[in-house]
Specification:
homodimer, 914 residues, alpha/beta, Dna Ligase, domain 1, Acyl-CoA Binding Protein, D-amino Acid Aminotransferase, Chain A, domain 1, 5 domains, eight-stranded mixed β-sheet, eight-stranded parallel barrel, 46% helix, PEP_util_CS (chains A, B)
C-alpha cells in the first residue's frame, strides 16, 4: 500500500519551490530532512516510509515560516492550493471528508522545529469539528458523548491558542476551565468524564459565547478557516516569549523557524479498547535498557500530559491490552534499530488499533546520555564515533559533581532559587565575609560564603568554602567565574535574598538565617535550602582519588570508556588553568596534559604573603620595592617547585603578574590601619597611595605587561623564581623534567613584549650561569586585546606562542565589561541581540574573526608558532569546536572541565572529518 | 675645481653598501638624500655642489647608525678603511695632514638626523689636536695662544662627551669649568681670553690630569682613536635621554637614526679678521623678510651659543666686516633661491675668508611659517601647493588663540609650569569647584577653574571658565580633552601645585593663593602666573566676528589666503563637533561644512534640566521614566531647532545619549539629599539607585546604544525632538533646510542597530504624519568598538553611514583607558613603546587597520556608505592624512581645529597626489 513518491509525482512541484510534504500512502520526506520538515515531520515521514502505523498527514515546511516572517505574516501564493490537495489526499486515505457532515476528517496541527522545543509552541487537536461535523462524529462513533467532548476540547484549545481568549483574560485562571468547573459544581459532579453528551453540548454553547464576548468574533464554522487559523497560530508561536527564551537558553537560532504538521486525528478516547501513551525505548533518567513510559485508556494525549488522571506505567499494558503491548514492544525495537538511538514516542490505540503519532530522539539526563551511547555501541548498533557524537559534552560533568542525597533534598526546606552558576551540591555554615569563612574552615567546619557579590579580596574565603551564594551578578560574575575555576558549587543572583551585613543575617521569603546557621545549595538547579543536606563526592572522583575501586563503579566504567574513546579521536591537546599543586593534581587525574594558564597573582594572597605584596605595592621607589620582592622570591620559587612537581614534566605556562595592583590593597579602613601599623607607615600615606592607584576603568588600566614595564623588578623576581625552581628540580637527586613557558600578559605592541623578553632572557642566563645548568623555556604572550590580534605578524617576531585570553579579548572587542553587563543583559537576551552569552560561548563572528586573523598572520611570521586558548571559553564545547577548526594546538580550561574538553575536542575532530 | 663624483668613481662602492659620502671637491650626495645623510649632511653636499664655500668633509650615513644599534654598538667591517680614505681626501683638499705635526688637519664631528634635533645630540670640535699637533697649529697660525685655546676646548669637549667626565661627576658644576675658574681667580683675571698661551698650556695639563683621575684613562693622543671615540659618542647620543624625549615630543621614529658629519675645521677665533655667526634669511619669529642673526668676531661657534660673550646683531657686520657682509648677503639670497625656503645657516670667517658650515630650513613660529609660505609664493619662488606643504598645519592655531600682552606677561610672577594642554592665554579668579566657577561667572567675573582633576560633573563649571588648571592628569586627561573641545585654555598636571579644598587655597613654590584671587595661565607654554594679565582675542577671530576689518589685519590676510588655497586642494569635507548653536556658529565661521558629532548628553547638564534628567534616571519603571522624559522633550527640541538654524542647511549628525547614566548623578552627599528632597524620594532610595548604577568599568558598561535598548523611551524622546525640530523649521515662515543624521553609539552587533533603527523610523513616520510633511534623514552608527569594525559588512546592512569614534576605538583596541594611562605613560614614553600618544595621533598599525577593514567591508555591503571620523584624531594633521588615504568623506573636529583640519586635508590631498 505505502509507496515513496516517485519522480513523476514530484516533477511538477520541482519546477517551483515545494512547501508541502506528504506522509502516509505517499511519502515525500525522510529523517534526513530535519531542516526543512522539522524533527517531528521528518520522523513521521521516516516512520511512514518504513511501514510503521502512522496516521496520514503532511508537513508545511520551515521555508514557509521564513517566508511568513519576511512578508508580514503572509504565505506564499501557491500554498493554499497545495494544502487543499494534501488535505484531500489525507481524507481519501482515511476514507473521510474534511468538513464532511457524515464522515468527517479531523486533524491535528502541530509545530515541529529542527530541534525539539517541547511545550514551547502551540498545538491544536480535533480540528475540523463544527456544529455539523460533531453530529457526524457522534453518529459514526456511535458515541455522542465522545463527539461532544472532542468538540468542547477543540473549542477550548482553539479559543486559547488561535483566538487568544486566555491572553485577553486578566485573571490567571483559564476562563474555559472556570466554565467547566462551574458546570461540574452546579451538577454536583467531580470528574470531567461524568458529564453527559447533553451537558457537554451545553458547555460548547457556553464556550462559544465566551469566545464571542471576549474577542468580539464568533468561533469559525468553516473548517479551512479553522485550519489556516491554526497554521498561523503555530507559525506565530515561533516568536512567543517562551520560545524565544528557550532558544536563547539552548542556542537555537531564530532563523531556523518551525514547520507545521497536519495529521489525521486518531482517538484514544473512543472507548475502553482505546488509549494513548508516551514511551521511551530506554530509561531517560538513568539510561538503563528498560521499556519506560506511561499510558491511559480511553483518553487523548493531552490527558497524559495534563495530569488530570494519573497514567499507568507502561508495564501494566501487558495485562490490560496484551495484544497492543506486544505490538508496542515490536515498535520499540524497530524504532531503536532504525533510528539507532533512544526514542521518545507517542502512540494512540483507537478501538484496538495501534498508531504511532510521533517519535524523536529522547531527551535524557547527562548520565543517561553517556550510558545509552556506550551501551548502543556495546550492542553494535552504533560505532564509537557515532556514540561520542551522541553525548552532549557537558553531560560528563554530571558524573563528576558532588550530589545531594535525593531523599534528603526533597525533605529540605526550599528558601528560594538563583542562577545555577557552579554545578554540584554543597552544604555548610553561613559566612558573610571571607575572613569569617576562613575562621569557620580552620575550625574544620564546612562553609557557604554568602555575599551580595564577591571581589578578588574574597578569593581566600572562597577557597575555604564549600560553595558560594551571591544575591547579585549573573553566571558570568566574579563569583561564578572563580567558583567554576575552583570547581566550587555556586549560585548567583539569588535576588530574593537580602543580606544584612551589620546584623549578620540573610532573609528570603520570610525566612531569616544567621551567620553560622546551616544552608545548602544545589548549583545544578539553583535551589537554596535551609539547613544541612548531606552530599558526597561522585563515584568517578572517588575512583580517581583511589577511595573506590574502579571495578565497583559502573559510572566510572562509563566515564572511562568515553574518555578513552575521546583521547583516541581528538587532535587538540587539553591543558588546564591551575595555580596550585592541588589543582594541578586534580586536573592531571582528569586527564590534563599540561598547564595552559597559571595565574601567579593568586599566589600572592596566601598567608602572610599578602603583607609582603602590599609592602611591595606601597614602596615609594625601586629600592624599597626590591626589598619587598626579595621576601616574596623564595615563596614564589616554592610555588613553582610544587607546580612543576605536580605536572611531572608536562608543559607549564606561567603568566606573569596581571591584575591592577589596587586589587591587592585593602578596601576596609580597619585593615588599612593594621597594614599601616605593620609596615610602620603613616595611615595617611597608605590611604593616599591607595587613592593614587585608583582607576576609572581598571580593566583597561595599569595591569598586565604594563606592570612589568613600569616595575621591571617584579618581572625579574617572578622569572627568577621560575628559573630557580626549574634548576632546583633538574638538579635534584631524582630529577624532574620541567618545561616552563613564560607568558607576558596584555601585550598590544611588539615593543612591550621585546621589553619584557629582554628581562626574561637576561635572568635566564644569570640563573643558568649561577646554577651551572642549561634548561629550555619558551616565552610567549596572551592575545587578549584586539591590537595584539591585529598586529599578530609583528608580535610573533618576539612570541614563541600565543595563548588566546578570550575573556578579556571578548571584553575589549565588544567594549563590554563582564562585571557590568548585568544592568542590560536581560533585555538583550529578551531581544535576542546576542545569540549566546559571549562570555560563555565564543562570539565567532567578532572575536573569532580576530582570532582567525591572529592565527593566520602570526603563523606567517613564525611557522611553528604555538597556539592555544586559556579563556573561560576553552571549557565550552561549542568554542572548543571552533578552536579545533581554527587549528589551535591546545585548549586550557579549569580542572573540572578537563573531561568535558576531552570529549568536546574529540567531537570537534569527528565533525570536522565528516 | 668642484666636481660631482661621476659613475666611474662610485662604481667600486656600488658593489657594496656605501657608508661614506664626501663633500667638497668631490661631492657624492645632494639635498634629496636626507634619509641617508641626515639634513645637515645632505645640505652640506648640496651647498658644496652649487659652489658655496663649504669646508670639505664627509658624512657617515644613517645606515651605519642602524648597523651600530643592531650589532651591539659595532661598525660595518669596511667602514674604517672608507673613513681613512675620506679623511685623507679632506686633508689633501685643505693641504693639511690629519695628525701631522707640521700642518695638522683639525675636524669637527657632528650629528645630523633626517629632521633637525637642535642641541639634543653631541658635537666635538677641534678634533685632531694632541700634544704634538698643537705645536704645529701654533706655528702655522703664528698664534700659540690660539692653538692652546683650541686644544683646551677640545680636551674639555672630548672629556665631557666621549669620556663622560661630567656624567661621572656628582656635583652639578662642570669640573673643567671649575679648573678654568680657579686658574682665572688665582691669576686675578676675569675673561677667558685674558689667559696667555703658557697659562693655557698649564690648564691643558690640569685638564688631562682631571680626565685621568676621573676615568682612569688618559686623554688619547692618537688622532684616529680620537675620531672613532667621537663618532661612537655621536651615534650613542641618538639614544640619550634628551634625544628620546625630543623624539617622543616631535614624533620622530627611533628607527631613523643619525648620520655623522666629519668636516675640516675653520677658525673664527683665528684673530680679529675672523668671526662666526648664525643667520636666518628671514625673521623666524614673525616671518618678516629681513636679514636676521648674530655674530661674534674672533670666536668659535660655541661661544655664540653659550652666551659667554653677547653677540652682535648681524646688521652690525655691515660696518665691522663690510666685505664679508656683502658676501654673506649674497649667500643669503643664493641659499633662499636655491632651497626655496627660509634658511638658518652658520658661517665662519677665518682670516677674512667666509665659510658656510651648515644650512637648514629654519625653525619658525607658526605665524612665521604661514607668513613665509605665503610670501615665498608672492615672490614666485614656490607655487601654492608647495607653500601649503611648508606650513605645519598646527601653526594655524597660533593665529586663532587669544594671547597675553607680551610685556605684561614678562612682568608677571611665574608660579610654576604644567603641561600645555589647551593653547591660548587666560586670566581670571580662582574657583575650586564647578559651582563656584558658575557663581563667579554669573557675577560677570572671569574664572579659572582649578582642580586636582576634572570629571563630567565639572562640565558646567568648565563652560563658565576662561581656563582650566589641573594638578593631575596629562594632555589626554578629561580636563584637556574637554578644554580643547570647548576651545578653552588649559594647563594640566601642574604637579607643583597643592590644592587644599577645605581651606580653599592653592600653594606652589611658597606662594599661596585663595579662592577669588587672580591667576593667569598660558596654555601654549604651560606657564602659570600670579595675578591678572590682560589677554585679547586674536585678530583673525576679531575679523571673523566682525569687530575688526579684514583689510586692517595682515594676519587675517595670511589666514584667509591659506584657507582659500586649502579649500581649493582638499578632498575631505570638514565638519565640527558641536553641541550648542554658539559652538556651531564659531565652527561655521572657521569654515565647518556640517556637524559631525553633536553630543546630546551635554544638553542635559544645563539649568534645571539636570534635575529632570536625574528624575528620569531614578525612575523605577517606564511610566515614571516617560513622565520625566516628557519634560525634557521640549528642551531637546529647542536645542535642535537652535542647532539646525545655526547650521543653515548643512548636515547635522546627532548622536543619541551615550554616557553611563551615573555620570549624571551627584557624587556629593549634600547634593544627593537636595535631589531626594526635590524629587520627594527617600534619601536611601536615591543612594541605593546610585549604588546600583555603579560600574566597575563604566567605559565598557551600560552606555551607548545599550541605554537606548534598555530604555527605548529615551531614544523615542530624542528622535522625536530631532524630527519635530526639523518639521518646525521646514514649515516655518522662512523655511530652513534641515539634514539630520541620527547616529546610534557603541554598536557592536547589527541587531543593536536594527533595534534602534526600528524606533527611529517609527517615530519619523509618526512625526511626518502628524506634521503633514515629508523630510529626509539618515541613520548610521559610530564605529567605536572593534567588533563594529570587524562585522562592518553586517552592520552596513542597517547603517547608512559610519562615523569612526576613534577615542573609544583606541581605548578598546588597545585595552587602554585614556583616563588611567597616566600611571605608566611616562615610562612608556621613556622606553618609546608607543611611537606617539595613541590618543593624540591615530595608531595606524592597530586602530588604523581596523578602520581599513571596516571601510572595505562596509562598502562591500553598501556601495554609497558615508564615511567620516569624529574622534579627537579628526583634528590631528597626521591622522587627517591617514583618513584621506583611507577614503573617508569627512573629518569632524572641535571648532577651533577646523582651520587646521582644512589645511591638513589639503596637505593630505597634495601628498597623495605626489
Amino acid at each position: 500500500m505505502k509507496k515513496i513518491s516517485d519522480s513523476s509525482t514530484t516533477k511538477s512541484s520541482s519546477q517551483k519551490t515545494r512547501y508541502v510534504y506528504n506522509f502516509g500512502e505517499q511519502t515525500d520526506g525522510n529523517a534526513s530532512m530535519r531542516e526543512l520538515l522539522g524533527g517531528k515531520g521528518a520522523n513521521l515521514a521516516e516512520m511512514a516510509a518504513i511501514g510503521l502505523p502512522v496516521p496520514p498527514g503532511f508537513t508545511v515546511s520551515t521555508d514557509v515560516c521564513t517566508y511568513f516572517y519576511a512578508h508580514g505574516r503572509s504565505y506564499p501564493k501557491t500554498l493554499a492550493k497545495d494544502v487543499e490537495v494534501a488535505v484531500k489526499s489525507v481524507a481519501k486515505q482515511m476514507k473521510r471528508e474534511f468538513g464532511g457532515r457524515d464522515n468527517p476528517l479531523l486533524v491535528s496541527v502541530r509545530s515541529g522545529a529542527r530541534d525539539s522545543m517541547p511545550g514551547m509552541m502551540d498545538t491544536i487537536l480535533n480540528l475540523g469539528l463544527n456544529d455539523e461535523t460533531v453530529e457526524g462524529l457522534a453518529s459514526i462513533s456511535d458515541n455522542p458523548r465522545f463527539a461532544w467532548d472532542c468538540y468542547r476540547r477543540f473549542i477550548q484549545m482553539y479559543g486559547d491558542v488561535v483566538m487568544g481568549v486566555q491572553a485577553l483574560n486578566e485573571e490567571s485562571e483559564c476562563p474555559f476551565h472556570a466554565l467547566l468547573d462551574n458546570m461540574k459544581t452546579s451538577l454536583g459532579k467531580e470528574l470531567d468524564n461524568e458529564l453527559t453528551a447533553e451537558e457537554l453540548q451545553e458547555l460548547v454553547q457556553r464556550y462559544k459565547k465566551l469566545i464571542a464576548d471576549k474577542t468580539g468574533k464568533s468561533f469559525p464554522q468553516d473548517v479551512y478557516e479553522q485550519l489556516w487559523g491554526a497554521v498561523g497560530a503555530v507559525f506565530g508561536s515561533w516568536k512567543n516569549d517562551r520560545a524565544i527564551l528557550y532558544r536563547s537558553q539552548y542556542g537555537i537560532p531564530a532563523e531556523w523557524g518551525t514547520a507545521v504538521n497536519i495529521q489525521a486525528m486518531v482517538f484514544g478516547n473512543a472507548g475502553d479498547d482505546s488509549g494513548t501513551g508516551v514511551a521511551f525505548t530506554r530509561d531517560p533518567a538513568t539510561g538503563e535498557k528498560v521499556f519506560y513510559g506511561e499510558y491511559l485508556t480511553n483518553a487523548q494525549g493531552e490527558d497524559v500530559v495534563a495530569g488530570v488522571r494519573t497514567p499507568k506505567p507502561i508495564a501494566a499494558m501487558a495485562k490490560e491490552l496484551p495484544k497492543n503491548f506486544t505490538d508496542l514492544e515490536k515498535v520499540r525495537t524497530r524504532l531503536e534499530k532504525h533510528f539507532k538511538d533512544m526514542q521518545d514516542f507517542e502512540f494512540t490505540i483507537e478501538n484496538g488499533r495501534l498508531f504511532i503519532l510521533q517519535t524523536r530522539n529522547g531527551k535524557r539526563t547527562g548520565l543517561a546520555a553517556i550510558r545509552i551511547a556506550v551501551e548502543l555501541n556495546k550492542e553494535k548498533l552504533i560505532d564509537q564515533k557515532t556514540a561520542l557524537l551522541k553525548i552532549p559534552a557537558e553531560s560528563v560533568d554530571t558524573l563528576l559533581v558532588p550530589v545531594f542525597d535525593a531523599k534528603a533534598q526533597k525533605e529540605a526546606k526550599l528558601i528560594c532559587t538563583g542562577l545555577p552558576a557552579g554545578p554540584g551540591a554543597a552544604t555548610g555554615r553561613i559566612a558573610f565575609t571571607a575572613a569569617q569563612a576562613e575562621i569557620e574552615a580552620r575550625k574544620g567546619n564546612k562553609v557557604i560564603l554568602c555575599r551580595s557579590e564577591t571581589s578578588p579580596d574574597d578569593l581566600k574565603g572562597m577557597l575555604h568554602s564549600q560553595g558560594i551564594l551571591t544575591t547579585r551578578g549573573g553566571v558570568s560574575s566574579h563569583a561564578a567565574l572563580v567558583a567554576r575555576q575552583l570547581g566550587k558549587v555556586c549560585i548567583c543572583g539569588a535576588a530574593d535574598i537580602t543580606i544584612n551585613y551589620e546584623r549578620k543575617t540573610l532573609t528570603a521569603n520570610g525566612i531569616t538565617l544567621k551567620e553560622g546557621d546551616y544552608i545548602s545549595i544545589n548549583g545544578t538547579t539553583g535551589s537554596v535550602y535551609q539547613g544541612l543536606i548531606e552530599s558526597a563526592d561522585s563515584e568517578v572522583k572517588r575512583v580517581l582519588e583511589g577511595t573506590m575501586k574502579a571495578s565497583e563503579s559502573y559510572t566510572y566504567e562509563l566515564f572511562n570508556t568515553v574518555m578513552e574513546w575521546s583521547d583516541k579521536y581528538r587532535k587538540l591537546r587539553i591543558r588546564t588553568n591551575a595555580d596550585t599543586p592541588a589543582m594541578a593534581q586534580t586536573a592531571v587525574a582528569y586527564g590534563a596534559e599540561g598547564i595552559g594558564l597559571c595565574r601567579t597573582e593568586h599566589m600572592f594572597f596566601e598567608g602572610s604573603r599578602i603583607d609582603d605584596m602590599r609592602q611591595m605595592i606601597l614602596a615609594v621607589d625601586g629600592v624599597q620595592r626590591r626589598e619587598a620582592l626579595k621576601k616574596l622570591l623564595p615563596m614564589q620559587r616554592k610555588d613553582f617547585v610544587g607546580l612543576f612537581k605536580a605536572m611531572a614534566g608536562r608543559p607549564v605556562t606561567i603568566r606573569l603578574l596581571d591584575p591592577p595592583l589596587h586589587e591587592f590593597l585593602p578596601q576596609d579602613d580597619a585593615v588599612r590601619r593594621q597594614l599601616a601599623d605593620k609596615l610602620g607607615l603613616p595611615l595617611e600615606f597608605v590611604i593616599d597611595r591607595i587613592k593614587a592607584l585608583h582607576e576609572e576603568n581598571p580593566m583597561l588600566g595599569c595591569r598586565g605587561c604594563r606592570l612589568g614595564i613600569l616595575y621591571p623588578e617584579i618581572t625579574e623576581m617572578q622569572v627568577q623564581a621560575i628559573f630557580e625552581a626549574a634548576a632546583e628540580l633538574l638538579t635534584a637527586k631524582k630529577p624532574v623534567e620541567v618545561h616552563p613557558e613564560i607568558m607576558i600578559p596584555l601585550v598590544g605592541f611588539k615593543a612591550e613584549l621585546a621589553d619584557q623578553l629582554a628581562i626574561v632572557h637576561r635572568i635566564a642566563e644569570q640563573v643558568m650561569t649561577r646554577k651551572k645548568i642549561k634548561f629550555k623555556y619558551m616565552v610567549g604572550t596572551m592575545v587578549e586585546v584586539p591590537r595584539a590580534a591585529i598586529t599578530a605578524d609583528e608580535i610573533a617576531e618576539h612570541a614563541e606562542f600565543f595563548s588566546f585570553g578570550t575573556n578579556d579579548l571578548t571584553q575589549t572587542t565588544l567594549g563590554l565589561s563582564r562585571d557590568d553587563m548585568g544592568l542590560f543583559y536581560d533585555e538583550y537576551q529578551q531581544k535576542e541581540i546576542y545569540s549566546k552569552n559571549p562570555f560563555a560561548s565564543l562570539d565567532k563572528t567578532g572575536v573569532g574573526k580576530l582570532m582567525q586573523f591572529a592565527v593566520t598572520n602570526g603563523q606567517k611570521t613564525r611557522k611553528d608558532l604555538k597556539l592555544g586558548i586559556c579563556g573561560e571559553h576553552a571549557g565550552d564545547p561549542d568554542s572548543i569546536d571552533f578552536c579545533h577548526n581554527l587549528g589551535l594546538q591546545y585548549v586550557s580550561c579549569s580542572p573540572p572541565r578537563v573531561p568535558i574538553a576531552r570529549l568536546a575536542a574529540a567531537q570537534a575532530a569527528l565533525r570536522a572529518a565528516k
